[in-house]
Amino acid sequence: MKLSRYYIPTLKEAPSEAEVVSHKLLIRAGMIRKLTSGIYNYLPLGLRSVNKVANIVRREMDRAGALEVLMPSVQPADLWQETGRWDYYGKELLRFNDRHGRDYCLGPTHEEVITDLVRGEVRSYKQLPLNLYQVQTKFRDEIRPRFGLMRGREFIMKDAYSFDRDEAGAEESYWIMFEAYKKAFARIGLRFKPVQADSGAIGGDFSHEFMVLADTGEDTIASCSACDFAANLEKAKVVESGEVCEDACAELEEVATPDKHTVEEVCEFLGVDPAALVKTLLFVVDGEPVAALVRGDREINDAKLRNLLGGNEIDMADEAMVRELTGAPVGFAGPHGLKKGVRIVADNELRYATDWIAGGNKADTHVRHLSLSRDCEVEQYADLRVITESDPCPECGAAIEFTKGIEVGHVFKLGTKYSEKMGATFLDENGKDQTMIMGCYGIGISRIVASAIEQNHDENGCIFPPSIAPFEVCLISLGGKDEAVNEKALELYEAVQDMDVDICYDDRKERPGVKFADADLIGYPMQLVLGGKGLKNGIVEAKDRKSGERIELPLDGFAEAFA
Ligand code: ATP
Ligand code: MG
Ligand code: MG
Ligand code: MG
Fold this sequence. Notes:
The chain is an alpha+beta fold. The chain is built from 17 helices and 27 strands. The strands form seven sheets. Strands 3, 7, 8, 9, 10, 11, 12, 16, 17 and 20 form a ten-stranded mixed beta sheet that branches. It has a five-stranded mixed beta sheet with strand order 24-23-25-26-27, with helices on both faces. It has a three-stranded antiparallel beta sheet with strand order 4-6-5. Helix 1 (about 20-30) packs across helix 13 (about 445-455) and helix 2 (about 45-65) crosses helix 13 (about 445-455). The longest helix has 22 residues, at about 165-190. The chain is elongated, with a radius of gyration of 27 Å. Adenosine-5'-triphosphate binds near residues 407, 409, 410, 442 and 444. Keywords: Aminoacyl-tRNA synthetase, ATP-binding, Cytoplasm, Ligase, Nucleotide-binding, Protein biosynthesis. One of its GO terms (cellular component) is cytosol. It catalyses: tRNA(Pro) + L-proline + ATP = L-prolyl-tRNA(Pro) + AMP + diphosphate. This is Proline--tRNA ligase.
């Protein structure tokens, strides 16, 4: 590709709304442009990287035996009503009507559509197992679209769905995908970690997320320094501001235990083993810990709570009584909820309680300044996070470390959650109707491009891993009007293309400084630089973008030296 005929609108400055480095650089490097909030155009360079990610993922899916299909992005409401998710999914689901007034949504995920497809096609055990995937545009009306491609409203996802005859088969399908994900992320060149995860709105039996390790990640990974335990402190929704909960927070502060400033202190106060730290949530309002949620045994916890509330007898299952005692100004989403002070929840209540605190599906309830923090360092507008119900603490009891991660992939064992509701059955060997066991597997294709930049950049720009760089090599001619240099450069350009290397040729009539700055900004892994002096001495300079190292390659016998 000759850059004189290419379109790369690089910019000196990023728009002020761009907070994280990948967002800034994707815009400055001329790879994406915003259409509207959370919705982007992919320009030629950006699309090349996106396609490279998608193709690596496709290859690993194909190798793992998954078959590519393409499903519609417009989905009829009746399918979502069948599974109950039409009501459950909340405002992230963009809904609309056709001219006949029928309800539709833009697909945020495709469990309903794929289950509908498969139930209509697959009749016999002989057709299973089956794994179908697609690379497709998803729409989620994210409450806070931000960070460019990292959290868009429209984004590109690879989603795969497996159908099996029995549990054993479903587990096998799950681990095949798990391994394929590891291969794909390794081939892309990401530093990543699989972690135990919450299955969230997708639901199901168990799941893992694949986290790209980066400080700007929105997820927090709790991992053990000694064993291989790693889990996501799954976040709940965060809303920017609101009156309702500010009142609630004021209430909370009154009965909070402000003298307990660390999770350890709260644990001690509650008589909870600090080794269960990752199961403890501390809510911080304006620098003060105002409430803690601790997982554990209901009975013991309720006794502790009574203690906390001044010895009052209280049945936590009795919402009215809790309200009366605590004078809570807002309702709660869960069966047993926190009102104020320290509320201790049993495992299966944790999600409800955190949902309540974060507003849950009640979009009008707002929460401010909530943070889980090991040592109460307040992160403004920090996410509320919760460890999932199924996570063990690490068995070994060693210290937990918290690191930031970006979720680039997620595998779920769904079980029969969808197939049962939608009647996706098959006839087994004995001619008996059986329900298919499902799994689903997502990869954030467009998010990966942003994550790769978060992990690989410096003050001059992106440093793309070769596998997903828009071009692997950029040849820069410093010839200007010197036709001999330009001719030689063109020769090199052809030679490199013959070697099947993805190269672009900066033949623009720009100053060398502009070409170097652009090449650094875009982050081609290698720059080849040919000037008048080099031509005279018979050398072309090769610069490694990552290390900055420069070596000279002979023009004579270039192909061998370059290889
Ligand atoms: P998150 O926790 O970041 O909101 P999610 O858990 O809701 O993501 P999944 O339903 O697991 O997302 O979807 C599969 C993958 O799609 C995610 O692992 C992520 O890489 C990607 N993805 C999800 N939401 C977005 C988004 N808003 N923008 C870009 N990629 C996304
Ligand atoms: Mg999400
Ligand atoms: Mg998630
Ligand atoms: Mg997920």
